[in-house]
Design a protein that fits this description.
The protein is mostly helical and 113 residues long. The protein is built from four helices and no strands. Helix 2 runs parallel beside helix 4 and helix 3 runs antiparallel to helix 4.
Length: 113
């Protein structure tokens, strides 16, 4: 039986962590619009979790490793943004930037033979 791709497992775990972190902030917020935006971004992340789960047993490649490594930097930026949530636009921009990097990594996997 093949082992799960380590990089994709890391990506999966990163996405789950981001989802959980946003939920924690959502529960603390008293701004209805911000909570709604957080819920929407959580759904977007859940979609990426599902995509990665379906690819977990893809062969390990340097391209995947490099793509997922870029997600780590984007996650660090998201972590900083979540510690200092100052408004709806800022939050959405931070999540959008994170998900663009995630999507690039996922697209690499989907294009492999």
């Amino acid at each position: 039986m093949a082992d799960a791709n380590e990089s994709l497992t890391d990506l999966y775990n990163t996405l789950v962590e981001a989802h959980d972190q946003i939920n924690v902030q959502r529960m603390k917020s008293d701004d209805d619009d911000l909570r709604d935006a957080m819920r929407t971004e959580m759904m977007e992340i859940t979609h990426r979790i599902d995509l990665v789960q379906s690819q977990l047993f893809t062969k390990q490649t340097d391209a995947i490793d490099k793509g997922v490594a870029k997600v780590d930097g984007a996650k660090a930026d998201l972590d900083t943004a979540l510690k200092n949530v100052i408004g709806l636009k800022s939050f959405v921009n931070s999540c959008t930037a994170f998900l663009k990097v995630v999507d690039t990594a996922i697209d690499l996997v989907k294009k492999l033979p």
